[in-house]
Amino acid sequence: MVKNTLARVVKFLRHNLRHNWYYITLTLIVVLFVSFFQKPLPQSRELSPAGGKIVPRLPFPYQLIERSPASTGDKGHELTGKQSDGEKKREGERPEKGAEMGTMQIPVSGEAANPFGFTYSATFADFRFHPGIDWLAAVNAPVKAVLDGRVVRVEYNKMDAYRITLDHGAGWKTRYLHLGQVQVEKGQKVKRGEVIGKVGKPGLAETVLPPHLHFELLYQGEPRDPARYFKEK
Predict the structure, then answer these.
(1) What's the Cα-to-Cα distance from 50 to each of 137, 162, 197, 210, rounded to whole Å?
(2) Residue 106 contacts by C-beta under 8 Å, 6 or more apart in sequence?
(3) Do residues 79 and 105 make contact, with C-beta atoms less than 8 angstroms apart?
(4) Which of 38, 63, 76, 227 sees the fewest Cβ atoms within 10 Å?
(5) pLDDT value for 130
(6) For residue range 97-138, what is the model confidence (pLDDT) as tens digits?
(7) CB-based contacts of 134, cutoff 8 Å, min separation 6
């Protein structure tokens, strides 16, 4: 009786072991096959002429050209103390009415690379909100005030390098980040087109990108798309 029971157990184990090894071997073959033929997905990137570093190529549907506030013809949006119909007004917010300040001047001579909004961050290798526009520009390229205003902040930190904030009144402010030099001081009044600093090496926030200016436009502390205030194509 005992011998018969042992024989059945051994037979059962042999059968199941053979059965399991069959599936284990098949699984290993499939895994090796997939690993061997798998290729990484191609990335849509392009070498930048500035510095030879890789920069994601992103669509930018605007022709950024310098315009005078007094110019006629097709105009970009003008900065006033009023919000446009397309901008949602926060509850209880009543912007101060101010004089029209005209279409903004381009702050630096260069190629617009990263637009406002959710875009790919080459530094952090993910998609995230980009609160401004990046212009690829050479180191020491002059950076100009886009409108008349007053310097309210001159700062330096490792993430943004030198950063200047201008107050243009009626709730509007502009920021200029990743500067290598600053040529203004807090409290100073500046004119539209006046040089306020120079482009430098990017801070840690955009360290993998070549030299560029990161420009932001804010209304009542909230970021706005600067491209809406330049002439569209």
Answers:
(1) 8, 20, 20, 6
(2) 64, 65, 66, 135, 144, 146, 230
(3) no
(4) 38
(5) 76
(6) 333 445 788 899 888 777 777 676 665 566 666 778 888 889
(7) 112, 113, 114, 206, 209, 212, 213, 214, 215
